[in-house]
Amino acid sequence: MSSKSLSAKSITGFIKKNISLSAFLVLIIFFAVIQGTRFINFDNILTILNQTVVVAVVSFGLTFVIIEGGIDLSVGSVLGLSAVIGALVLRATGSSILAILAALVVGLVCGLFNGIVHTILRIPSFITTLGMLSIARALCIIVTDGSIIMIPFDSGIKQMALMPWILVCGVVVFALTYILLNYTVFGRYTRMIGGDERVAVMTGIKVKKYKIMIFTLCSMLTAFGGIIMAGRIGAGSPTTGEGFELDCISAVVLGGTPLTGGIGGIGGTVLGALILSILANGMVLSGIESEVQLLVKGFVLVAAVFISLEREKIGVIK
Amino acid sequence: MKPILVLKGIKKYFPGTKALDWSDDDVLEIYPGQIHGIVGENGAGKSTLVKIIMGIYHKTAGEVYLNDKIFYPRSALEAEEKNVSIIMQQPNILLNLTVAENIFIGRDSKFIAKNGLLKIKKQNEEAKKILDELGFTNINPSNYLNNLDYEGRKLVEIARAISVNPKILIVDETSAAVSHDGVEKLYKMLKEQRKNGVAIIYISHFINEVFELCDNISILRDGKYIKSLKVKETTQGEVISNMVGREINKDYYRENDAVGNVGEKLIEIKNLSKEGAFSDVTFSVSRGEILGIGGIGGCGVEELGRILFGGLKPDSGDIIYKGKRIHFRSTNTALKNGIGYVPKDREKEGLVVNFTIRENVSSSSIKNLSNMGFINKKMEKDVVEKSVKALRVKANSIEETVESLSGGNRQKVAIAKWVSNDSELLIMNSPTRGVDVAAKQEIYKFIENLKNQGKAIILISDELPELIGMSDRIMIMRKGKITGTFSRDEHPGEHHLIQYMV
């Protein structure tokens, strides 16, 4: 083999191994070249980071679910429900703390429902959370009567969603979930269950209990993301988070956590979320219409799954 | 006589490994009307070789000749069209189809009527004919594979291979998957095929089996072709020493012939029953004791082992553990009580193969190696390294994935998993299944060490020499009942024990 083809091989090898990092770098270079300082400047970088936090926070939770081998399609609706409940509680009590707690309770309840229905009634997580997608969205509209609940500018929630606190929120959730996945028994069992559930059962792991905990964690982080989202847009709207599951699943998969479970991590999900924000930001700067952006996002998700799926593990794709 | 199949200078490289690496002038000849054994340790390249013949793998270099013509099938179906068929080591059937559908899969066009519908009755009848000829009379062709046990499924695979009317029949590690009764049927079938002039390639881990059955033996080692021998002109010792490249002691089970020290009772099973598996089973195991349980497929021992680990619920009866009645809510109850289970199917139930050795070994003990839910990585590393060393797992590092290990080393990792958490009772189901001779010996040594440390061991096995060689007591089951219990001091023989099984 000639040295030339060898080096070409090692480059493709690197790209395959570090697909998210490569995509991240390529995107930055691409938009930097075509947009120049409109893209690379301090304000725009802050904007990108600002836009990344909510997707990232929700995707950190979703990463656990996907590593465990499941899926949570309800994150968009749960995000919306937490946002409107948070906004309603804030309006009623004036307390941001109570509003955040109320949103977290929404996450807790939705997550427990997802986890318990999935494990105890033995319904695939795909269907359970698809049901929750519809249920939580319906509740959004019912509790708000279809109207938008405004959040006052001087409220704690609004302040939390501004720089630099929004970034602090993102970094803290990142650190906590990173530690949880990599340094705790909970994280190890999450990977074990996703690696091979039958083996996990025959190791004496309480698989059902851990799955319920994983779905609850995901929904609670989603609820936290919902509060930040409400703060960012200054309102809890019944349509908040519609289609958001697409962004989050894309972020996780782009980050190198395949839908087949067992492997992947939080660090990759940060990259995945950043890739999506950069792509969205770059497209906006380039004057691309939002319909086309949605089109691109769809292709990105399919492409990310195409690259990452471990086909040997599932054998037949259905 | 002219060989029907000639293999010359076969090479098969996978990324990172040379599964087969014969030199260019190595030639292996297969003759019609003979059974040709291929032996070698795990990783010798036996399965790779037959997959190349079948067109499942495509060789990197070398040539295969069928009746002097180059033979290069693109797929197993193409090989079957040339009357070459295989019974694979790994199950290769569809569980949601019937026996008859499995037998004729890919070749069902002859059962399609003019109106486009499948002639199911005719297919079943033909399947029945094949099954009857083979003596598998208890298998109903319209039954779904789901409803058959492990052995029944294997028999269906045998029937499928025969239905091709093979001129060359490859049998890859099949006897390891079936009970004594199934093995006899397999032998009978093979001998009949040989009489009819079929060339049979027979891969097995059991040397005595190869000597009983085969006319010729070829030995592979680490992907290399070593030599071919005529069974009449060689000895088991010569073959084994060629396989491993060194002389090994024929007697590789426990050194000591006596029962030795046995402590107090650890677990007592009283009148335990499970519908469809076994009924009214009573026995006990003590610390420092190896209880061997044997029986043919379907005798109920598989389910018994599972129940003692909490993986299955009994219908009635008591399990007394450390003097107290124990009620298994799930497998977690077993884990908490220091009961370990080494499953028969290590890839499906014992190990996550794409995880590291470390994660697999520590999975049973990670709670003990953590503080407030946080894993103590240093302690984890130490414990895993200690267990891996005790079992002599051959790996460069505990960060290697299990995938990269040979069958024997994988099995050692599966055992290490239950040693790392200091299990007091170890249930081992066929701990040397599909394991090469050298690794077997090491595993036996290790089990003996566990006994000396005062662990209680339930050794479930369908290999009689293993049961006799290792156990302090042997319990034989047949059709869900205990038919006999024998002490090591009685020196029970294979021929004696087999009467209680069949």
Give an overview of the whole structure:
The complex is a heterodimer of chains A (318) and B (502). Chain A is mostly helical. Chain A has a domain at 53-242. Chain A has 15 helices and two strands. Chain A has a two-stranded antiparallel ribbon. In chain A, helix 4 (75-93) crosses helix 11 and helix 5 packs antiparallel against helix 6. Chain A is globular and about 65 Å long. The mean pLDDT of chain A is 90. By secondary structure, chain B is of the alpha/beta class. Chain B folds into two domains: 5-244, Rossmann fold (3-Layer(aba) Sandwich); 265-501, Rossmann fold (3-Layer(aba) Sandwich). Chain B has helices at 46-53, 76-81, 99-103, 120-134, 150-163, 180-195, 207-213, 236-244, 301-308, 331-336, 346-350, 357-362, 377-390, 407-419, 437-452, 464-470, 494-501, and strands at 5-14, 17-21, 27-30, 35-39, 61-66, 69-70, 84-87, 168-172, 199-203, 216-221, 224-230, 265-274, 278-286, 290-294, 316-321, 324-325, 339-342, 370-371, 374-375, 425-429, 456-461, 473-478, 481-487. In chain B, helix 4 (120-134) packs across helix 5 (150-163) and helix 13 (377-390) crosses helix 14. The radius of gyration of chain B is 24 Å and the shape is globular. The two termini of chain B are 41 Å apart. At the A-B interface, helix 9 and helix 10 of A face helix 10, helix 11 and strand 19 of B.
